[in-house]
Amino acid sequence: MAAHELVDVALTVNGSAVTVRVPLRMHLADALREHLGLTGTHLGCEHGVCGMCTVLVDGEAARACLLFAVQCEGAEVVTVEGLGSPAEQHPLQRAFAAHHGLQCGFCTPGMLMSSYDLLSNGPSGTAVAPGELPVEMSGVLCRCTGYRGILAAVADVAAAYPDGLPGPGNCAARALLGRSGGRSAAPAPDAGGSSPGEPSRSAASAVSAVSAVSGVEPRLPGGAPSATVEVRGALSEPVDAVWRVLDDFDQLARCLPGATLVEVLEDGRYLGRAVVALGPVKLTFDGVARVLERDPGEHRLRVVAQGADAGGSATQADIRLRAAPGADGGTELRADVSLYLSGRIAQFGRALAGDVSRRLFEQFTSAVDQAARTGTAPAAGAGPSPVRILLGVLVDRVRGLLSRWRR
């Protein structure tokens, strides 16, 4: 499979049998947080050093940032949410509170799961000597407490349960809802697989994902956008020919680099997919768009779209297009876009996101001019080389720096 393709992974998390559809390279911690909404598993170094992401996999402690989700097919995973509930906390949770074994709380989930593993699976179990705890608990780093309260809490619980530590107390079948674009994990299918005539697990998951997205009403968040893009393109074709392209959503989607129209929904909504590539980074967004304004007289169109990537990135866009008569019988195409980014894609920063988006919409205006001239839009999903986009952005940055340096 290609790196950006998705695969179904069936596993049991805190007593709930689920199937998550994730990229091959997604680690378990991101799958837990983004697809199942279990944000108690914290991410620190993502190199397996700090121990913040410790969970139980088949009863033993594991670093969730060092496991691919696909490695956990059929596994039983317990996170800190499964250890105890607010109403019925696990003895370790109560002891951490009593001994003030936390300050900022960021390492606390890792400390709890690591100490549970120590007292359950360690060579001495709950008979571990208090003097051994500084070494035994050193696999999780804390920058706040000085460890004294943590070690006292673990020693207290070990002494209180000489016959063995109670198991996780909050594991039961329940719905687990993801955070990325309202996605949720599908219940795991029966072990026997699909019956004749029924769709396969992957096909059923794909249908479920399409159904979930198709019911979404695209909305824009409050606050300032992550980036804004204003592109003015001079097209050679007349304004009526350009408007025919903009007014045909199938052709419009084909002109957007990397975009594919998947299905036409009711109420002016469209289900689609967009692949955004920046050098080696490739994100695939499944989402929905809706035409809010369509004015043939003014040759004006406004589209609101939102989508989510399986890796936890999400984007929303307010796209305003206006075609006006230009010089020599051509057209001036104006594209004003407000982008709202969240998740990993937001880490590119406002300036870089704006530069890349501007490049993409420059390609869009060129594709619209070609479609207006030939009557044929680019192939679905076609787009410029991600390397060329990245190089173009870097060249523009260098030119800007040189220009400022000269001034």
Written overview of the protein:
The protein is of the alpha+beta class. It is 31% helix and 25% strand. It contains 11 helices and 13 strands. It has helices spanning 28-36, 80-83, 91-98, 108-121, 133-136, 148-160, 201-214, 239-246, 249-255, 350-374, 386-406, and strands at 6-13, 16-23, 54-57, 60-63, 76-78, 186-187, 227-235, 259-264, 269-278, 281-295, 300-309, 314-325, 331-342. The protein has a 7-stranded antiparallel sheet with strand order 7-13-12-11-10-9-8, with helices on both faces. A 6-stranded mixed sheet has the order 4-3-5-1-2-6, sandwiched between helices. A hairpin with a 2-residue loop joins strand 1 (6-13) and strand 2 (16-23). The radius of gyration is 26 Å and the shape is elongated. The relative contact order is 0.11.
